[in-house]
Amino acid sequence: MRLRHFLTVIAISFGSCAGTTTAGVITSDSFDRPNSPTLGSTDNALGGTVTAPWQERAVGGASADTSDILDGRLRVFGEGVYLSTNSNPGFAVVNHNMPADYLNVSMDVRFGDLVGSGSSLKNAACLRLRMPGTSASVYDNGEIHVQFGPNGYLSLRERASSTWNQLYNWNPFTDTNTGWNVGSAGSLPSTFGGMPFDVDGNGTLDFDEPFTLDAILYGTELNVLLNGVNVATVTASAAPGSNNYFSFGKNRVSSGNTLTTPAVYFDNLVMVPEPGSVLMLLAGGAVVLATFRRKRRNPASVR
Fold first, then answer.
1. Quick one: which of 54, 115, 83 has its CA closest to 248?
2. Can you name the residues that pair with 192 across neighbouring β-strands?
């Protein structure tokens, strides 16, 4: 195994401060457990301070078979069973509520190799922030989606008043609105943020080309980072409620497109809720510094 990089997280814990009962509670999962059709609970091997169970959910919020643990990663293949032609969406939900005003989520992501012909993507990796509950539908008001495709396209949107507010739709690598269409060879950089990226130069991120994805929600400001580089900053509306459940998975961005992503693989998850004001630190508490050594597995270990 090659060492990837160090991630330093400062978590702030408070004693009796009102409204901060979950502040400073880190949830992490290395997914280093035996292969299983069930997901278990976060293992906190990366320094977390609370263990939370995983749930598998369909788009509408119902329980469904969407994911499994495979070779030390969480694999989301979508509702149904794993098939190379399965383009169904599906999600893995962490059953742990976070403060709605701040959440820092970091993970390693890789896409299953594309299946099909043509040049338009059916699927993207999707992070869901500000879910009102573990069984939430993707259409619940206030929810924020971070969607990233193997072609480098990034879509950020917020559900409000029963419609989608589009916050960002752009390919930061080609500096164009490519949509979910695959670019030509060389359209993505071979390295990004000092890490390997589209190494083979074919214009898509394949299974053996993992990357780090971070989403930082601070009040109404959302920042998205790839391999530690900030690629988008947007402003959302204020959270409609106090709940902030989180999930990730494979979304279907278009049924009419031609290329299926059989699964999206997630690894080395760290979620850090922090208070939205430095003044809260002065109220009392302790600062806990946790340094996580994160790894990149041999890309040939799963096919």
1. 54
2. 195
**What is the amino acid identity at position 220?**
T
38, with CB counted inside 10 A (0-12, 13-18, 19+), is exposed
Q: What is the number of other CB atoms lying within 10 angstroms of the CB of residue 117?
A: 7
Rounded to two decimals, the pTM is: 0.85
CA angle 185, 189, 192 (to 5 degrees): 160
Quote the pLDDT of residue 1.
Answer: 29
Contacts of 278 (CB under 8 A, 6+ apart): none
* Residues 250, 263 contacting (CB under 8 angstroms): yes
| Residue 281: per-residue pLDDT | 29
Q: What's the confidence (pLDDT) of residue 216?
A: 96
pLDDT, averaged per 10 consecutive residues of the chain (303 residues), comes to 34 31 72 97 88 95 97 97 96 91 93 96 96 90 96 96 93 94 95 98 97 95 97 94 92 95 97 53 31 38 32
Q: How many CB atoms neighbour CB 119 within 10 A?
A: 17
For residues 47-83, b (16+ Cβ closer than 10 Å) or e, as one string? bbeeebebbbbbbebeebbbbbbbbbbbbbbbbeebe
- The pLDDT of residue 24 is 56
Q: 């969407």: which residue's tokens?
A: 66
Q: What is the secondary structure of 54-83 as a DSSP string?
A: EEEE-TTS-B---EEEETTEEEE--SS---
If one counts every other C-beta atom within 10 angstroms of the C-beta of residue 175, the result is 8
pLDDT at 10: 36
Torsion angle in degrees (nearest 10) through CA of 48, 49, 54, 59:
-80
Q: How many CA atoms lie within 13 A of 23 on its CB side?
A: 23
